[in-house]
Amino acid sequence: MPARARLGPGLPGHLQRGPAAHAARLLLDAALQWKAGRFVVAGPQYPAVVRWPSNVERVAHLPPPAHADFYRAQRFSLYVTRADRVLAGYSPGVRLFEAAACGVPIISDVWNGLESVFVPGEEILLARTAKDVLGHLRELSEADRLALGAKARARVLAEHTEAHRALAVEEYAREASRASATGTPVDGFIVQR
Questions:
Q1: Which helix (H) or strand (E) holds 31?
Q2: Is the pTM of this model over 0.85?
Q3: Residue 17, CB half-sphere, CA atoms under 13 Å: how many?
Q4: Which of 10, 45, 52, 6 is nearest to 28 (CA)?
Q5: HSE toward the beta carbon, residue 20, CA cutoff 13 A
Q6: CB of 130 closer than 8 Å to CB of 37
C-alpha cells in the first residue's frame, strides 16, 4: 500500500451476514454521515452489491506483508467482529491484535469477552452505532488518541503475542496431562487415557 496521508478508520477483513453485517454498517453509515471524512476498506470478500461512498477508498487485496503499513496509515482501525465470533464470544480475530500491535487506536463493535482482551475506554473504544464511531473520530483529542493506541500496543506485547499463546498451550497440555494421570476434571471435563 503506498504511503499516504493519515486516513480515518480502516476496516480490514470482510463483510458478512448477520451481526457482523450490521456492525460493518458502522463504517458505511459513518462515511455517509461525514462526507469530509476519509475511510478505507480492505479485503477481497465484500459483496459486489455494496455501494461504497466516494469518501471510502476500497483496497481489494491487502497482502499480509502490507498489513502493518496499512494500520500505521490510519488514525483509527475499525474492528468488526465476524458473526461466528460474536455468537461464540471470547473469540477475537487476529486483525484486532495486528492493529493494536501497530499502535493504531481501535474502535470495535461490542462482543462478549472483549473486556478480557482490552480495557474499554482505556485501550479500545466501543461503538454500537455510526454515531458512536463519529463521536470517537471527532471528539477524541490527538493526545488521547495516541495514548489509547500506545496502551493497546503495550497490552498486546505484554499479554497477547504468539510467545504468550505458546506458553498457554504448553500449560494447558501440562494441566491435561496431570489431570489424565489423576483422573481429576479440567474445566469440568474428566480427562481419560
A1: helix 19-33
A2: no
A3: 0
A4: 52
A5: 21
A6: no
What grid cell was written down for 85?
A: 465470533
Of 109, 103, 44, 52, nearest to 76 by C-alpha is 103
* Length of the chain as a residue count: 193
CA-CA distance, 193 to 187, in Å (whole number)?
17
- Secondary structure of the chain: what % helix, strand, coil (to 5)? 45, 15, 40
Decide: helix, strand or coil at residue 62: coil
Bridge partners of 190, per DSSP, are: 185
Q: What is the DSSP letter of 110?
A: -
pLDDT digits (tens, 9 = 90+) for 17-56: 554 466 567 888 999 999 999 998 888 777 777 788 999 9
